Amino acid sequence: MKLKDSLREFPFIAITRGLEPHQAVHCIEILIQAGFTIIENPLNSPRPFESIQSMAKYAGEKALIGAGTVTKVSQVELVKHAGGRVIVSPHCDIKIIKQTKKSGLVSIPGVATPTEAMVALNAGADALKLFPAEIISPAAVKAIRAVLPAETLLILVGGINSTNWQTYSEAGASGFGIGSSLYKPGISGEQLLQKALLFRDSLG
User: Fold this and answer.
1) pTM score, whole prediction
2) Is residue 129 flagged as an active site residue?
3) How many domains does the chain fold into?
4) Are 39 and 65 in contact (CB under 8 A)?
5) How far apart are CA 58 and CA 71, in angstroms?
């Protein structure tokens, strides 16, 4: 499963910050049921590698499982060992990008300016995480998109919900990382499904 193909079919990435390992399988089962094919478990969650391992084992080829908030080069191999295939960072670190590609994983570093975007792409990034979206307007997305290679995947993260993503999509966003508007610690399975279906239904 390729990142580009996954985003084309379902442009939302589930971010499960705060997930407990014993909830991992039930959580991913619900998300896949609702249409999500990319799930990111941030490394500042409780025992994150256990959750990633459980998710990856359950998902198989049905979804791309990865890690978010990757801030150290050493974490890349730990994610790979757990079965994760995507590395997402809040920032642009060339060393993390290069280690990610060396390890055969998908690299999605965080950027907020055209300068950072170009640095990340030149280092081998597969996609760019525009973060935080709260301070990046649709007009800014359009402007950044205009100076990047046409095939660049732009993923908006931060403050995105089922009702505001469309204007960013029209401006050139390729996908969206969905955090607290989808998953919060303590959420029930029924609530998670309801929130997940809002995103599926918003596709029309």
Assistant:
1) 0.97
2) yes
3) 1
4) yes
5) 26
> How much is the pLDDT for 173?
98
Host domain of residue 157: 3-202
- In this structure, are residues 118 and 149 in contact, taking their beta carbons and an 8 Å threshold? no
Distance, C-alpha 150 to centroid of its chain: 20
Query: Tokens standing for 102?
Result: 């060396």
What CATH number has the domain bearing residue 162?
A: 3.20.20.70
Q: Which of 2, 77, 95, 129 is catalytic?
A: 129
Per the residue annotation, which of 9, 29, 40, 190 is the catalytic one? 40
Q: How confident is the model at residue 201 (pLDDT cuts 50, 70, 90)?
A: very high
Give residue 204's pLDDT. 87
Question: Is 147 exposed, middle or buried (CB count within 10 Å of its CB: 0-12, 13-18, 19+)?
Answer: exposed
Confidence of residue 58 (pLDDT cuts 50, 70, 90): very high
DSSP character at residue 54: H
Whether 40 is a known active-site residue: answer yes
Is residue 96 within 8 Å of residue 68, measured between CB atoms?
Answer: no
Sign, Cα dihedral of 178, 184, 189, 194: negative
**157-173 mean pLDDT:** 97
Dist. CA 189–CA 187, nearest whole Å? 7
